[in-house]
Amino acid sequence: MSKDIAKKSDDLIDLLTEQCADLENLLSLAREETDAAKQGNFSRIIDIYQERSELGERLETFQQQITDLRETLDRRVPANISDKISTVVSQTLAQDTKTRKLLTAANEDTAQELAQLAKARINTKHYSNERKKGLALELEA
Questions:
Q1: pLDDT class for 25, splitting at 50, 70, 90?
Q2: Would you list the domain boundaries of the chain?
Q3: How far is CA 104 from CA 4, 81, 99, 110, in A?
Q4: Angstrom distance (rounded) from CA 107 to CA 69
Q5: Distance (Å, rounded) from C-alpha 100 to C-alpha 111?
Q6: Alpha-carbon span 115 to 123, nearest angstrom
Q7: Who has the most CB within 10 Å: 50, 59, 64, 118?
Q8: Are residues 52 and 29 in contact, defined by beta-carbon separation less than 8 angstroms?
Q9: Taken in order 30, 31, 35, 36, is the CA torsion positive or negative?
Q10: pLDDT of 111-126, one tens digit each?
Q11: Which of 126, 87, 103 has its CA nearest to residue 33?
Q12: Tens of pLDDT along 52-89?
């Protein structure tokens, strides 16, 4: 029985270690995503989104396994590991907020530029449809 508890404890520690590593990778990707948003590199943002999605799935699996092991052992996660996990999750959420603001601003800028292009297109169309072709043509005549 003692060997079983030791094995499950080791498994729990291994899972928590892997979870912390994945959370740190998630935070790193969130920072990269913010940088990509600052640079307007939307293809990199899409790649990062895919990587973060895969990490999220792994983290969900880890969480379920950790919960199962904790119930089996009837123990709490050591406080320092819980604190580390909470810190990294908070940092990731803060980084996501920065990225969201950058992407929203980029989206608004793009919408304004598209509106200006549409207006310029309409003005050009009106100009080309006018009977008077402008000063340059009048001077030639």
A1: very high
A2: 2-99
A3: 52, 35, 8, 10
A4: 45
A5: 16
A6: 12
A7: 59
A8: yes
A9: negative
A10: 899 999 989 888 888 7
A11: 103
A12: 988 888 888 888 888 777 777 765 556 566 677 778 88
